[in-house]
Input
Amino acid sequence: MAETRYTKDHEYIRVEGDTGTVGITDYAQGQLGDVVFVELPSVGKALSKGGEAAVVESVKAASEVYAPVSGEVVAVNSELEAAPGTVNEDPAGKGWFVKIKLTNTGELDGLLSEAEYQDYVKTL
Amino acid sequence: MRYLPLTETDREDMLARIGVTDVDALFSDVPNGKLLKEPLDLPRAKGELEVERILGKMSSKNTAAGSVPFFVGAGAYKHHVPATVDHLIQRSEFLTSYTPYQPEIAQGTLQYLFEFQTQVAALTGMEVANASMYDGSTGTAEAVLMAHRVTRRRKAVLSGGLHPHYTQVVETLSEMANDEVVALKPDIRATEDILAAIDDSVSCVVVQSPDVFGNLRDLKPIADKAHAHGALLIAVFTEVVSLGAVTPPGAQDADIVVGEGQSIGNALNFGGPYVGLFAAKSKYIRQMPGRLCGETVDADGRRGFVLTLSTREQHIRRDKATSNICTNSGLCVLAFTIHMTLLGQAGLTRLAEVNHANAVKLADALSGVKGAEILTESFFNEFTVKLAKPAAEVAEALAARGILAGVPVSRLLPGAGLDDLLIVANTEVNTDEDRAAFVAALAEVL
Amino acid sequence: MLNRQGRPSQAGEASAEVHETFTGNRALQQIEPLIFEIGHHETTGVDIDKPAPFKSRLGKHARQGEIGLPGLSEPETMRHYVRLSQKNYGIDTGLFPLGSCTMKHNARLNEKVARLPGFSDVHPLQPTSTVPGALDVMLELARYLMTLTGMPAVALSPKAGAHGEACGMMAIKAAIAAKGEGATRTVVLVPESAHGTNPATAALIGFSVKAVPARPDGTVAVEDVKALLGPDVAAIMLTNPNTCGIFEPQIVEIAAAMHEAGAYFYCDGANFNAIVGKARPGDLGVDAMHINLHKTFSTPHGGGGPGAGPVVLSERLAPYAPVPFIHVEGGKSRLVEHKADAPEGSDPFGRMTAFHGQMGMYVRALAYMLSHGADGMKQASEDAVLNANYIRAGLADLMSLPFPDHPSMHEALFDDEWLKGTGVTTLDFAKAMIDEGYHPMTVYFPLVVHGAMLIEPTESESKASLDLFIATLRDLAIAAKGNDKSRFTAAPHHAPMRRLDETRAARQPVLKWEKPAPVKEAAE
Output
């Protein structure tokens, strides 16, 4: 059963087993505006929690996407290179960025639940 | 004061509207005692006539290139610029506009930038070009940084044929950024073994052709060796007119091409403002410095142009930007692109042919002078002459005779033991009489 | 003479309808194709005689094949660029209130003198004995800049503001290295409100950047700076007046704190126009400051350059000024082009650019300074500040001021608080100004303010011009609050182009003209 957790930087991670799919939330894509470019890490790269995992660019902004947890990159969504707009259209689905093999599932506990994240967004 | 429209009455009315009695009340955040009470020790305002007189006097103390037989080059060249160019760049809408941040009312600027980028790409044989750098030297330093970003290495190899000022600019920036530079020693006859300096630690090789001594260089073998080691070839030129006659760097597999564009459309200006040309392979586009203009459509579907890929730039990316450049060489770009439009490839090819023909004539004539030897084998419009006396002395003696003869290598490389070398340029502006005068005077001086 | 031709002499019928034209042109607004679409490879607008036959010395380097560049005849060239120019807005067109850019009047006298052959037609490497007047210009400009800033030295050669920043930061780095602290002092403090060039420059020179928070009143507090100071800090880069248009009240204390901690104060001089003749950076504790000659001293912006960015330096940094510079000794001036030629006590950190910098800009700036004089430059600063505050006073009741507690200097900053709930954004408001015949103000900068609108009128505007500008913005503001949304969200309606699709430009970059693929013949 997949479980989705969130960061205050508006990344989500959907965990199945020891693998997590990382992307940005619908709120984040709305704030960014039209996404025009996505810079992805190479497969095999070791990420540490809070470190830069990817860069997402709109016309007038470039934002880092941080790794919600530590782990190794096992897949990247290379479809985004040709179709960066997918991040706007389907952020939680086809607009994912990277899949991470978690090194410490305990790190998930520090992240926000769906309800907690939605409450957090309301305060912004 | 003719430039200030407000009257004393205006000022009083405006202060009253703001609700203060004195303009200094608006400077209330200036710390105590730091607001100047007395006028500074500088002259008072002057009328237009007086300013013209003062600056005219200063100007007349200088020897203008157009007033004498003139053979000075080494990175900046005297060419004829059509009258149309200077007229057009002084149109208010070009001269007094800003960087085109509001594209709906800046299509004039944006379209010429797009045309310029296309021209530079075609000239250099490269896939993409940016909207300009300050000049060739700063563009070269930026190219080195770009190669470091692409290769994730931090060591540049500079050819001994690179203009010494360019070498120094690269060295200065690299030293500050803790990057390594290997500058090969001055290479008068293009015989250096630059291939030997390329290995897996090298980020880029920087080679100029025509080089500062005038030699035309073969770039392809250098590109091949660089690529075999995961390094980039940065090709540099200081005389853009040469591209009308010689194989462009793009055809020799250069990865980044940097050039000084002053020769087309721009005056000598004692060294600036000039215009840096910057082109690259398109796969490196996101690592390029400077502005890029791109095509798009407006809300009605009509073709228009905007500045694009701006997330590379300082105003968005801040400390992660590809460069800190903001203001570039806008109006010099306009002068370049207008002149290049007037020339077209037909005119540029002919202009290059005349430059080369004139240089060959001069080289032939100078080689007949006792005590002068032409060292450069294949060249475009500039070559190096070895003299029987120190070149700086000879240049001074010729200047005293009303001839500006060239650049002594010692001016660029003092203490390098190259005091007997003179770099001589010859463009379309030089006549047979100019050349005859030069040859005769040189024979006298030597 | 009778009107036998039957020519009508009255105005035609009134009509609200706008007709599409056959050409797509709109009278003076002409659609202009690219040169690649109208030119030909064999066409040229220059006449150059073919040289007599000669033996080429190009060797194997002779170009093969076409360059692929069209040419235009002279009349076609003239028309092409004149039509392009008509799609542009310049200072000569109207008020250009672009904050932080100082779009002031560009006197044509300056253009005229810069084109004197003794300035424009001299080569940087011709014997210095043939260019004493050029050296005089550089010395005179340097004297003016040092006097206006109260600083003992100036490096003239940087090519623009950002290049000047690099020069100043390199001098600081050299000074730190000379003290043996090069390895430890690696951090540069930059306020959040800074121009993007500041952090970009610091990073370029190999420093890491630490942000200084902005206080709620738009200024930098000395306590916040002190909290970040340590043996790792090399310098602070602070704009003054700052990007919110406020003179930093604690600037002297900040400078002192930096010096006490063994660090340096770099001042971004982009906003120098507010204080010329009123206050001197040298009196405030500044160690290095670039001056944008193309802002404060009116050398034209030319659609994005060229500029010039001389850097004034304090006593502590002066020895490290880069080559070239002019050294005066015993009444004689000498151009120093190499480190080895530097006089006693000088230790240049290197070279910023080939040759000697932006001579063409030096002449224009000097002409500006001579024309204004000490009195005119002081008056210009006062008028620039007066004009900004007059606009602020005229709009403050309708638009929101994020920092009402400080007077504005030469620019007035508003935020978009007042637009909340209207459905109109700062960008929409700016685009509606275009329809009214104005260039928009700077928008969305500084970043510390939401939906920023930064208005810098400069001293070049008359009171009548300001009054009309204020009335126009008031009318727009009332319309925005009155739900007249379409006036904004679809603006501009009357510009040469409607709003452009920047997303498309960035997603599929087209950065040069490509020859269209030949249309395939229909299959028979």
Remarks:
- The mean pLDDT of chain B is 97.
